[in-house]
Design goal:
Its cofactor is Zn(2+). By secondary structure, this protein is of the alpha/beta class. It has helices at about 45-50, 110-115, 165, 170-185, 200-210, 225-230, 245-250, 270-280, 300-305, 320-335, 350-360; strands at about 5-10, 20-25, 30-40, 65-70, 85, 125, 130-135, 145-150, 155, 190-195, 215-220, 235-240, 260-265, 280-285, 310-315, 345, 365-370.
Length: about 375
Amino acid sequence: MGLITRAIVMREAGKSPEIEAIELEQPRPDEAIVELQAVGICHADLAVIHGKIPVPFPVVLGHEGAGIVREVGAETTHVKPGDKVILTVNTCGECFYCNSRLPTYCEDTFARTWSGRRPDQTTTLKDGSGKPIQGNFFGQSSFSRLALVNKSTLIKVPQETDLKLFAPLGCGIQTGSGVIFNTLNLQPGDSIAISGCGAVGLSGVMAAKERGASIIIAVDLNSERLAIAKKLGATHAVNSRDGNTVKLINEICPLPAGVKYTFDTSAVPKVIESMIAVTGRKGKIVVVGATPFDQKISIQPLEFLNMGKHFIGSVVGDSYPPEAIPHLIELHSKGSFPLDQIVKYYKFEDFQQAFDDMLSGPAIKPVLVFDDGDGLN
């Protein structure tokens, strides 16, 4: 018999999930059992809950976990029981992209992220009646006190690491900062406009300040979020509620030079088009959000030709997690990446309040925290 624990189980899209007792299989050679201390909530989790991203049900979501290794399989040799770990994306470790330090583009991404099963189509979880539950979400399904995870998700961190604070580094925070550090490789004196002041966008603001950008323009509908962006390093704040975003940004960075880089986290087509419009000659536009499949943006190819613009997609900020996560922890310790300013903690059983607060605004990056002994054998 496997391990019994408690997890947030999503039975169908659009229906509120509930905490249930579930059973985890024993770890295979390339897997481990992690006792979660905390787990961040990402908009990708909410997108699944609200039916915007299709996955098989029932399912345990969660992909920003942090905890302590409890058991390891024979081939999981880079960590041992008792180690603190932050969980990140699940990759094969063998394809061209994994071997090129671009694991977020792994050729086996779908099977390892969205399928709800292992790549060989076996399930990892069962409910109280013994029926299969889809797990392996991003290789971890960490909305659970205990998680059965693939070894590729395990990033070992120092024992003094605050797992509650750094749990969100596995996805969203790594994405926002990674766009600045990797996708754009922003340099001192560069200018950038960032649309969307959620956790991803504000991580981009913090990273841009750390890199020494001369102009950091934060764009959002929410004046409170814009105030936070200014506190974290934005030099300008543009409220897009009145629909004059392009005009306001052009006043700050007039064309044709315009803004050197624009970074959209909103996934809203009209906002993306605004970012394209304000990007200057030889500038780059980066998108990271999951725009629905039935929505498109309108572009003028001649504008890209004459201005030499680049339109780029970025998955998890083109990060290499074994280096990116320790780097972000180090930056925080130096005071140049104040992640604590955007994190809000909730008890595990208060997950629905955390979901609601993320959608309505009170929480930028909600983190669920487990009580000692909660859901353990």
